# Entry
Amino acid sequence: MKSIHNGLYPWGLVIILVALISLTMVFPAWARKKSVSSGAGNSDYTMSFGGLERHYAVHVPSNYDPNRPTPVILNFHGGGGNSNTQRTISQMDQAADRHGFIVVYPDGTGAKIRLINPEGYTWNAGSCCGWAMNHRVNDVGFVNAMLDELERHYNIDKKRVYATGISNGAMLCYRLACELSHRVAAIAPVAGPMGVSGCRPSRPVSVMHFHGTGDKFAPFAGGKGSRSLPGQSFESAEKTIDFWVKQNGISGGPARTVKRGQATGYYYGPGTEGSEVVLWVIDGGGHTWPGGRFGVLGEKFLGPITRDISANDLMWEFFQQHPMQ
# Structure
């Protein structure tokens, strides 16, 4: 698989994030407050790993029962973002409250003040991206250690740990599926293709991928996006899906197709151990979270957000069908 990089981290995205989320969002949540709780509500945690202080935020639904194992969704921000921006963009707290799962928003690494460093927080997703890749940050190891810590704070259902994220965060999901498949049951990347080679998961991993055909940062067809300012190249969404269809032992084309307005879902499978691969194609969709929130300025810069589907609801339905065997 060819080398790919994410071109989402220059000044342009930083400025738009500031405009969307407000200046207070330039600073990570843990720079403003530190709180720890093992009950319902929002908490912030810091931990040392790999010589770095790492942060993650947790939202626990009001119906959380410490005596009952609870599923978890790890939700990774895009390049130049942070845990707070991803919480706003994805609106996943509300889905967690409706469906009864814990959602975790980790922070990548880079500058704490993104107005000074245009790269902002990034993830090392293999061949991408920015500060995290250049410094060879062990983000897979961080996620593994973070899951250990989460299990000490909450009653986590180890067979129902899932991962999602947008752009660079989506690419990290694919790396976790390759290297941490013994802990991550299934993934649902948004607007970010696979960025690793030599992927050999220890078990089949079900995948639900969302991608807009009008994405100008990580083009659906691959290659260089017109707004990928460094002019770097991406793998295509279809080639990414083809890899996982074959990896999971699925033969033939989609078993079924679902049409919802401008969004079309292609469902492949079942494969080995009941695995499934799904590609949701959003006709004209931008570098955005289906059913999410960016604001008017965000949509002008990143492209349209479809309201025909909710990524949160679709991935939760999908995750429920694909726990760890």
